[in-house]
Amino acid sequence: MSPLLLVLDLAGIFVFSLSGGLAGVRNRLDVFGVLVLAALTGLGGGILRDLLIGAVPPASLADWRYLVVPVVAGLVAFRFHPRLSRIERHIARFDALGLGLFCVTGAVKALQFGLNPFAAALLGMLTGVGGGVLRDLMAGRTPLVLREEIYALAALAGASVAVVAWAGGWYAPWVAVLAAAVCIVIRLLALHHHWQMPHAGNLD
Amino acid sequence: MSPLLLVLDLAGIFVFSLSGGLAGVRNRLDVFGVLVLAALTGLGGGILRDLLIGAVPPASLADWRYLVVPVVAGLVAFRFHPRLSRIERHIARFDALGLGLFCVTGAVKALQFGLNPFAAALLGMLTGVGGGVLRDLMAGRTPLVLREEIYALAALAGASVAVVAWAGGWYAPWVAVLAAAVCIVIRLLALHHHWQMPHAGNLD
Amino acid sequence: MSPLLLVLDLAGIFVFSLSGGLAGVRNRLDVFGVLVLAALTGLGGGILRDLLIGAVPPASLADWRYLVVPVVAGLVAFRFHPRLSRIERHIARFDALGLGLFCVTGAVKALQFGLNPFAAALLGMLTGVGGGVLRDLMAGRTPLVLREEIYALAALAGASVAVVAWAGGWYAPWVAVLAAAVCIVIRLLALHHHWQMPHAGNLD
């Protein structure tokens, strides 16, 4: 992994872990629970992907830097949560960067492990949203990603761009950047305009 | 896999995915969340089994037909949920067919991967009920299968018939049909007669 | 595995399964649901660890004795839950023994599979607490281990002792005993003195 990609990857994990740590503080977990929830949120998506493609032990367990980052993020969330809550809208924007990065790296890793394009796009999406789903399950609520705003769909769109390029034989670093940008732009627009996917009507 | 078995397998996934999609509509998920919950319900049991026996990537990720069927079922649930709700009792009967099929194919796959008969029967049961458990966890409720009616037990019974036959050396297609039938008949009788397993008494 | 270790391992699973079975009775599950929850609690931590280190099928599925013990524990919980509830404080002490044992055996198994010390300590902790987390998720509540008392931290401490000894090249049976004792003593002291980890302040 190139140094730039490593830094981006760790930055994405940091932001995801922050959101997990904040959820832990709000659920009145103790400091240790906050750290665990931060790590699960930051690393969970990649771990689920690695389990499903058979890349065990998961990459994040094989490199101590991937374990240190969520701990630091969790401590930051624990200590500075009032201040973080005030800038939560900005955190949501950084979160979009993480989402864009993870959906692409996740899809590409699945392709490298020989999965078909359709499955690779889904695993890219899972890499992006899996941590948040685990966070919400641990906090005892229906995963936010299933209920609100365009989040998983943005991840699926970014992953699909990468997968289509790969299948067409013209995957390259700039394509990865483009794919991540597609995800990030969709997500930021959805945040800004409060876009919603349609809900079913006529519920009794 | 024979064409007949493939069709049956996809039909079982379709019915399971319908129940997941309906749960999503009732949880007021948007259309994308409904599709995700449908896929998780239809494919989750087999994916859990494949993870536990080391068959990665899971079979359903390696074949696009297994990914298309839950999407179609989810769209049907999203669009036609009022009508589906009215015929839900009939859906429960089709669901029994899927359960019977999955508990047998799940147990046999575990045996083929070298698991002992006891574990294979459990994995057959897990294949049948796992998707519904994931559906209920995502929807934030105690899994129905743990609480109500004879469901997992029917799957265990069907899986056990297949496992005993395999251990005795007389496994054959007709045994698989018989094992699935055992599960289906128990489940349909339990549905019809509202059979319940005993609950513990004397709760304070 | 030595006969002594096997007996200890099964005893730990028995106690964990008891707590799962009691949770099932309190959630008004039927007898079958109680057995499933008992097994998930007793075996879940080890299964999660085995999935993450790639030791599939998980050890507990490959040995029928590991499947019989939770079933017996679940039946005991189902039948004798009023009596067990009265001695629950004593059960919590036995539970500490299981925790101490599992965090050490879990960490050592991860080291044997080539994981780095940091990850091995985390997997040791996961082996100890994973079953309880699954139990609470199935029962629809935020995992107790994240919320209350010093539990996961005790497991992490015990696992860390084993890992440090291993990395230093002086791991031996008596070190394993010492590491388990560290976990058990911390847990028992925390139980007795109601030690708590700090919680975040200033929640709006």
UniProtKB/TrEMBL annotation, chains A, B, C:
InterPro entries: Gly_transporter (IPR005115). It comes from Auraticoccus cholistanensis. Pfam families: Gly_transporter (PF03458). Belongs to the UPF0126 family. This is Trimeric intracellular cation channel family protein. It is found in: Cell membrane. It comes from the Bacteria. The keyword Transmembrane helix applies. Keywords: Cell membrane, Membrane, Transmembrane, Transmembrane helix. It is a multi-pass membrane protein. One of its GO terms (cellular component) is plasma membrane. Residues 7-81, 94-166 form the Glycine transporter domain. The chain crosses the membrane at residues 6-25, 32-52, 64-82, 118-138, 150-168, 174-190. Its main location: membrane.
